[in-house]
Amino acid sequence: MIELIIPGKGIVVLEVLVLDYNGTLALDGNMLESAREHLRHLAHLMDIHILTSDTFGTVERQCQDLPVQVNVLTSSNHTREKADYLLNFNPDHVVAVGNGANDQLMLERAHLGIGVIGFEGACTCALLASDIIVKDIEDAFGLLLKPQRLKATLRQ
Questions:
Q1: What is the tally of structural domains in the chain?
Q2: What sign does the CA torsion over 102, 108, 110, 113 have?
Q3: Tens of pLDDT, residues 10-52
């Protein structure tokens, strides 16, 4: 669990991390090596879930040795499916990270939405739905591993 007090916003308790895969954690279906290490560290603090359309069909193999729950989307509306997945948890304790159009509602519904620009860029609607925008997944992990950075960014 990550807990901090943000001036003007109050106490924030983050227990669940929900991540998009391609464009956020992975490039062309291959997870970034640095992301693996960060996921291992964060697993001691939060439950981690990866939601993906699995465009390249690689997510299961890429995540097999990681302490994460992988969920390959199956509906005809992945945007809604990602957002509805957050209903499995108290959305007030969820941080979501993504970059694509199908991440927009998930980023809005989470207590903290982090938009990642990354190698693929980012869809404008996902960025507008985010509380924080970062240039890559490394920066997103940095915010969670050093939560005082969140405080500095979100204080009012």
A1: 1
A2: positive
A3: 889 999 999 999 999 999 999 999 999 999 999 999 999 999 9
